[in-house]
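Quick one, probably user error.
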């Protein structure tokens, strides 16, 4: 079953488009990369600080990133950081001239090609943690690559010469100790991670994309020790920030509806002072609807209701409270100020008509979309309503918890009085 909106109602009413949400996810990696560029430009004038950064900076950042990834059970980020750590050790080995000829070319080529490939692979797979069988398999990728490089070094095959084939002729910006093949590989990895970050709206995938850019810059400037240290540290820092952003989003935002979750509401309530109003909204007969049409359709109904409540007006903020229940918080507003808006939201949801149809999803129930569907496709018109309870801070309920409890009591009165209506507290008379 799929829900097919009427008059374009399947469109998310959120003010933020996928492009703008993706841009926000890329803001942190862009900021870290900008800071790295500034450090790379100005730190060479400070030898003391620079030597300390080269010695400890990248290792410390990567170590902290690995700990954060483990703490938040982000296996994809952990193994991306491990891949960076191995490559950083190899590139430092080359930078100090401890390898030359075939050995240097093989190690440098492996590092420049495998890091962006690994990060792209970890971007494609689902998050399944680190300390489990899935983590073991993903960590085995890095181990396999290390063994493969050792085999190439031992047998001195022609694969290294093939990898170093000059695809683009002489390149002034690229270190000759690294293969030009790394450039198209890096471009492909950027495409994969960038698309994933946009489609999934995932901060970690945006961080992966930024880390690939930072590592590519570090590789291109391999002859500069300060650049290698700064940009590898930046890559690890991006992934660490991405893990923190993603964990925050999971803790404070509801994945289904995209609204802030109950924890976000609780934290916001701690800062409330002065006058404010809280409304509790519940989808009527949702259990019966779910039992009849299934949880997938029920989830679509919740997303539909959330899209209507997302911008309640009057400076309000909507939250997913739990199940089919939502909370609307209006800081600085009296109950009588928000009642007209609540009535408008209730009627908007009541008057919304959608179709439940077998088959593929159609974004809107337009004449063009109907003509494209089979004439005999079964479809059932449906609608939902909501009940609302609302209360404001006063001498009887002076804390946010008490106001929320009063709004919840008014909600249950509205449902007892017949649903699809608003009740206010302390006067719990249903409003027209």
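Nope, works fine. Designed sequence:
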């Amino acid at each position: 079953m799929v829900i097919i909106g009427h008059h374009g109602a399947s469109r998310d009413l959120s003010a933020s488009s996928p492009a703008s949400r993706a841009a926000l996810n890329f803001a942190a990696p862009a900021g870290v990369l900008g800071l790295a560029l500034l450090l790379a430009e100005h730190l060479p004038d400070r030898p003391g600080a620079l030597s300390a950064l080269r010695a400890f900076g990248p290792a410390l950042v990567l170590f902290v990133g690995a700990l954060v990834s483990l703490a938040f059970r982000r296996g994809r980020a952990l193994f991306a950081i491990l891949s960076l750590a191995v490559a950083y050790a190899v590139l430092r080995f080359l930078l100090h001239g401890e390898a030359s000829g075939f050995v240097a070319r093989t190690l440098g080529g492996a590092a420049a090609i495998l890091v962006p490939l690994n990060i792209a692979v970890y971007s494609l797979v689902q998050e399944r943690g680190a300390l489990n069988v899935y983590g073991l398999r993903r960590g085995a990728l890095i181990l396999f690559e290390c063994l493969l490089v050792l085999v190439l070094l031992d047998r001195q095959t022609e694969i290294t010469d093939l990898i170093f084939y000059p695809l683009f002729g002489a390149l002034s910006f690229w270190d000759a100790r690294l293969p030009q093949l790394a450039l198209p590989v890096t471009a492909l990895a950027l495409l994969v991670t960038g698309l994933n970050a946009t489609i999934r709206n995932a901060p970690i995938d945006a961080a992966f994309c930024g880390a690939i850019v930072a590592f590519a810059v570090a590789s291109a400037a391999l002859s500069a020790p300060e650049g290698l240290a700064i940009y590898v540290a930046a890559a690890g820092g991006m992934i660490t920030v991405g893990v923190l952003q993603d964990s925050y989003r999971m803790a404070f935002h509801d994945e289904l509806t995209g609204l802030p979750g109950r924890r976000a509401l609780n934290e916001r309530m701690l800062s409330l002072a002065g006058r404010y109003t809280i409304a509790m909204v519940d989808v009527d007969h949702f259990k019966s609807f779910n039992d009849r049409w299934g949880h997938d359709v029920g989830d679509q109904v919740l997303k539909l209701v959330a899209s209507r409540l997302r911008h309640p007006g009057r400076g309000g903020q909507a939250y997913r409270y739990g199940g089919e229940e939502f909370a609307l918080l209006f800081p600085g507003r009296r109950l009588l100020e928000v009642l007209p808006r609540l009535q408008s939201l209730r009627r908007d949801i009541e008057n919304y008509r959608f179709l439940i149809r077998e088959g593929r999803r159609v974004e809107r129930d337009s004449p063009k979309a109907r003509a494209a569907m089979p004439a005999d496709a079964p479809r059932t018109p449906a609608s939902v309503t909501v009940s609302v309870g609302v209360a404001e801070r006063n001498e009887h309920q002076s804390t946010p918890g008490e106001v929320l409890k009063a709004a919840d009591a008014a909600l249950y009165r509205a449902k007892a009085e017949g649903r699809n209506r608003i009740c206010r507290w302390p006067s719990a008379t249903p409003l027209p």
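Residues 1-16, 359-366 have pLDDT under 50 and may be disordered.
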